[in-house]
Write a structure and sequence with these properties.
By secondary structure, the chain is mostly beta strands. 8% of the residues lie in helices and 41% in strands. The strands form four sheets. Strands 1, 2, 3, 4, 7, 8, 9, 12, 13, 14, 17, 19, 21 and 22 form a 14-stranded mixed beta sheet that branches. The protein has a four-stranded antiparallel beta sheet with strand order 15-16-20-18, with no helix packed on it. Strand 5 and strand 6 form a beta hairpin. The radius of gyration is 34 Å and the shape is elongated. The C terminus is likely disordered.
């Protein structure tokens, strides 16, 4: 790679696009750019493919706990043949941040004496572009665009292992309370200079054979009486030339990230889990779990509830509503509330519990839903979290129960 190609990355730009279509496929969209068409829109794509790429319809509203695909676009002023062989030296990262105004208590005073409302940011997802997946390339003469599709999960990252042995990311909302939350996508990238081959220079302790000797740098000291007639000899070939060291060339080139317009975000569904103790006379450790699911009151779109699962570690979770009340998938209207009942039965082996409470068990909750905005846009929402269930009985089970009348 020549220096011009490396320095030209200063003019490269990174942008992020969140397509409006849920099942957007960039490979299916690209042929419309490369091939001609009688329609004016297709002709515009053929003449200006980069403009058509950046004009893809994007989302206007996002949902927490949503799983989506974002497009990371790298625009470069160099041709395709110059950059494609060096994509392995490119590193691109994507970060998703949630922010919003926090309320009165966080108002801070600016330097000019005016009250300004501060904004807290919380990173809810971060990841790197998979270099093993080749990007989709859009070439426009002397300009090129490399596009990657990155799967994002708009939730707090917590790598864990599910009770069934599968790795997943547990959900969690932003850690700060926000009013009017917004989500922004920020792409960052670095381009490393490819290493150059260094030819080793042989260094011999002896003077080269057949080469005339150079001047004697100590010849002026030959008349010194202190040397008693000894003429010192030091050829100039024995000395290394010392010069001023030049500043090292940069090994990395940071790629400029274009500012993105933040997108409003809101929760599509909310859930609450409550427990009710069973009869203490039962020989099995059991309790009743009530899972309340409510669709968001801040939207007008329908929500299709597709899946509700509870899984208890070292035990079982029995769905008491199966075949009686709610059949999934179910289409829910805004502000609709649904209740699911489960019987949680734990094994009597206390060795699986915690050291502080041997009768506690880990419960994993999963809720899946789709928001029906239109036929092309159906965002998928997945809520998954873990909690602890206490199966211990009360110290006085008869307290608060029915008693016989006084005779």
């Amino acid at each position: 790679m020549d220096g011009n190609t490396f320095n030209s990355m200063e003019e490269a730009e990174l942008e992020v696009i969140v397509p409006y279509e849920t099942d957007f496929n960039l490979e299916d969209w690209k042929p419309h750019i490369a091939s001609g068409s009688q329609d004016e829109q297709d002709e515009a794509k053929e003449s200006h493919p980069l403009s058509a790429l950046l004009s893809i319809p994007s989302r206007k509203t996002l949902y927490f706990d949503e799983q989506l695909n974002a497009l990371v676009v790298l625009k470069t002023p160099r041709g395709l043949d110059e950059l494609q062989p060096h994509l392995s030296y490119l590193t691109v990262n994507l970060e998703v941040q949630a922010f919003g105004s926090e309320g009165r208590s966080t108002n801070t005073k600016s330097t000019d004496g005016q009250w300004a409302q501060s904004h807290s940011k919380d990173v809810i997802w971060s990841g790197a572009v998979n270099q093993d997946t080749p990007p989709v390339i859009v070439n426009d003469g002397n300009h090129s665009a490399f596009v990657w599709s990155v799967g994002c999960f708009l939730s707090m990252l917590a790598q864990s292992k599910s009770l069934c042995g599968l790795a997943h990311r547990c959900s969690g909302r932003p850690r700060v309370r926000m009013q009017h939350p917004m989500i922004s996508f920020k792409a960052s990238g670095t381009f490393r200079r490819p290493p150059t081959a260094i030819v080793p220079i042989p260094r011999d302790t002896l003077l080269p054979s057949g080469v005339p000797a150079s001047i004697n740098v100590l010849e002026a000291l030959g008349g010194d009486p202190e040397l008693q007639g000894i003429t010192p000899q030091l050829t100039a070939l024995r000395l290394d030339r010392i010069g001023t060291s030049a500043s090292p060339e940069p090994t990395e080139q940071y790629i400029r990230s274009m500012p993105q317009k933040p997108i409003p975000a809101l929760p599509a569904i909310s859930a609450r889990l409550r427990y009710s103790k069973c009869s203490a006379s039962s020989a099995r450790l059991s309790t009743i779990a009530s899972l309340d699911i409510e669709t968001s009151p801040f939207q007008d779109e329908e929500v299709e509830l597709t899946d509700v699962k509870l899984q208890l570690a070292i035990g079982s979770a029995e769905d008491l509503c199966a075949g009686h009340s709610i059949n999934l998938p179910k289409t829910c209207q805004p502000r609709e509330n649904m209740v699911f009942l489960f019987r949680l039965v734990a094994d009597n082996d206390k060795s699986f519990g915690s050291r502080a409470n041997p009768l506690s068990r880990i419960l994993e909750v999963y809720i899946g839903a789709r928001v029906s905005i239109c036929n092309q846009c159906r965002p998928m929402v997945q809520m998954r979290w873990r909690t602890t269930v206490d199966f211990s009985t009360a110290l006085n089970p008869s307290y608060g129960g029915s008693s016989q009348a006084i005779q």
